[in-house]
C-alpha cells in the first residue's frame, strides 16, 4: 500500500503544479491584507442559509434562527446519494437540530426540527454524528450544559432520523455521563460492531451502539490520560477512529491534556497505547484527524493564534522513538485567528477557520502546506485576540459529502454555507492509491473493504 509520504515525490510535481495550481491572482488574494476579496476564484458558493432566512417546507421561516448571535453550531451531512439531508445544530438555549433537504442544492429548505424541551445553561449540543444500524438511521448529539442545570450530566441524545424525508425526527435514548461530552465519534469496527466514543474533558468513554439502543448505557471502557500533566486538570478532548489497513487493526486517535495519543482498539474493551505526540507548544490537544494510511495526523491546539499542525507519527508507531515532539508542517490563514474544525480528504484539509471562514489546504507535501481555496463566511467586526466575549466568531464546523464533493460549513453568526471547489468532484482514497478511509464510515460492509477496487458504495 502506498503511503502519503511515498506519494509526495511521485505526485507533487504533477498535481500540485497542474491540477491544483494557483495563478498569481489567486495566490495574492489568499494573502491577508493584499486583497479585499472574500473568496478565491476556485470556490463557488452554491447557497447560503442565514440565521433569519431558513425557508421551511411551507414557505415560512424558522423562529429558532431568528436572532443574530452565537447560535449556529455543528453540521453533519448524510453520505448516501439517495438521502440528500443535512443537519445543523443550534447552540443557544434551548438547543436542537434543524434538518434541511438538499435535493436542490441552490435552494435548501427545512423539513424537520428537534429541540431540547427546556432551557439550559452552557452550549447544549456540541457535536453531531450520524450512524446506521441495519436499515435504521440515527443522529447522535453530544450535550454539555452548566453544573446544576436541568440537564446536568446529560451527555448524548440519539435521534431516529430514518423517516426525516417525511418530517419525522424522534428521540430514541439518552446517555448520561459526568460533565457531558463535547465531542463524539461513531465508528464501524472491523469486527462488525458499531461503537460511539465520547469525551468532554474527563475520561474517554466507549459504547457499543447495539447495547445503547437496547437500553444498556454502561460504557465498555473508560480511558484516562496515560501521562501525568502538571498543572492541568483536564482529560480527553477529541477522538477519531479509523481502520489501519496495513496492520489490519482498529486505531483510536485522541487529543487532550499533554497533546495527542494513538491507541490500538481492535479489542475495544482493552485499548493499548501505540504512540504519543507532545509538543512544547501544545498544552491541551484539540482536534485530531489521521490521513487515510495512518502515518500522519492533522491537529489543532485550540488556543487563539495556534496554527494547524501536521505530525509524522510513523517513527513512534515503528518504535524508533518513544514520543513525537516536532511537527513536520504547519499552516495558518491569519496568525491572529484559529481553526475550529477540520475534515481531511487527502490531499486536502478542509477547515472551518473562524473569522477566516472556509479554508482548503493542500498537504500533498506535508512539509510545505499551502492554501488551495477559501471563502470568508464572516465579514463583520473582528474579535480581539484576547477578547473571550467574541472569541468564537465565524466558521465553526465543516463536513464534506464524499460521493460528489459538496462542502458544508456552519458559521456561528451567519448560518449554513454550501460550496463546491474546482477540481474536487468527490473523494475516494482508492483513486489516490490510498485506503478509502475518512470520517465517513461504511456501515454496510465495514472498513475491511477499504482497499478494494472498483468503488462499491455502502458508505454513510
User: What is the mean predicted local confidence, pLDDT?
Assistant: 85
Structural class: mainly beta
Major sheet: 4 strands, antiparallel
Report the sheet-strand fraction.
Answer: 35-45%
Characterize the structure shown.
With 460 residues, the chain is mainly beta. It has a single domain (4-449), classed as Methylamine Dehydrogenase, Chain H, CATH 2.130.10. Helices cover 7% and strands 37% of the residues. It has helices at 4-19, 24-29, 209-213, 314-318, and strands at 43-49, 72-77, 85-90, 96-101, 109-115, 124-133, 136-144, 154-160, 170-176, 183-188, 194-199, 204-208, 221-223, 236-244, 249-256, 259-264, 272-277, 288-290, 296-299, 308-312, 329-331, 341-345, 348-352, 358-362, 370-375, 395-400, 407-411, 415-421. A 4-stranded antiparallel beta sheet has the order 1-28-27-26, with no helix packed on it. Strands 2-3-4-5 form a 4-stranded antiparallel beta sheet, with no helix packed on it. It has a 4-stranded antiparallel beta sheet with strand order 6-7-8-9. Strand 10 (183-188) and strand 11 (194-199) form a beta hairpin. The longest helix has 16 residues, at 4-19. The relative contact order is 0.14. The model is unreliable at 7-36, 53-70 and 454-458 (pLDDT under 50).
Protein topology:
Layout: H1 4-19, H2 24-29, E1 43-49, E2 72-77, E3 85-90, E4 96-101, E5 109-115, E6 124-133, E7 136-144, E8 154-160, E9 170-176, E10 183-188, E11 194-199, E12 204-208, H3 209-213, E13 221-223, E14 236-244, E15 249-256, E16 259-264, E17 272-277, E18 288-290, E19 296-299, E20 308-312, H4 314-318, E21 329-331, E22 341-345, E23 348-352, E24 358-362, E25 370-375, E26 395-400, E27 407-411, E28 415-421
